[in-house]
Amino acid sequence: MPAENAVLKWSHGIFSIQALGGMIGAGAFTLPDGRQVSPLFIAPWWNEAGHELDGLTTGLRGEWPCVPFGYPMPKGSFTSRWQAVMDDADRYDDVHGYSSNHAWQFVPQADSDFVELSIDYPVDHSISHLVRRLRGVAGEPRIDLELEIHARQACRMPVALHACFALPSQPGAAQLIPGAFKSGSTFPGVIEPGAEIFAKDEQFTRLIAVPSLDGKEIDASHLPLLGSAEELLQLNDVDGRATLRHLVDRYEVAISWDKALLPSILLWYSNKGRQGAPWLGRTLCIGIEPSSSAFGLSPRTSAAANPIATAGTRTAIDLAPDEPLTIRYSIAVNHLSAS
User: Taking the complete model, does pTM exceed 0.85, yes or no?
Assistant: First the structure.
């Protein structure tokens, strides 16, 4: 039987790596002051029986790659300029790609501070296989990661690194600090009816002042948000870094990546907004997702001349056979000094 998980263990951390989705699971970083912190999200239904879920939702946790990133959504709730580029005939088998919903294979390693795994795609898919490598950095609370994408044929598709971070229960007890970005966009449709808080298809330049449904502005940087919400924001032409500060627990977690390959961040606010099973209005998570994509909509929409792409930010990556694409990035934590 293939292994269901592997352990990444080094001087400053230990994490379970799950075969399903290749996701980073339960574990902790050890800070320089000796404290252990667990910034990554684990879905609260992880050990609950009775749910009939897709692979991604079943194993939802931590961080994993999405190739291709996105899935079709009904376009009725979208603004007219987005409806014009959304294809009703677009279908999907796997939300956020085959690799997000199926088991990866681990490559045996001699050292616990390094994990390598791979997954083969179906023979009729444009992607041949992915290779994922994770290394705990000796002497530091940091994981260096590498994703290799091998195409079977020339194709153009959206790609993302899907990092999910847990949030404290107290509103405003965490602060999201993105690096510099050129422009931000609110979602042009509705994700969860009744859980929308941002104005549709609007632009902004500061995360602390995002246009809201009532014509005012919302500070989307201090988390969790008051009330309930299920929303997406996209930051475009970013500088390749973002930090989540836990103000009460006095630590921060940072993700950094190659902005030339992934020029946007998709921010997923799951703020007790989804009421159906298995969410049940209990999920507090911020997704910080470096991407080349248009809101994680269908791969066809991201590969097309959508409004974000025509405004100058690339929303898909061109892949070629025999020319693997390598994306390098890292996740690190540090102590926050008292201000």
Answer: yes
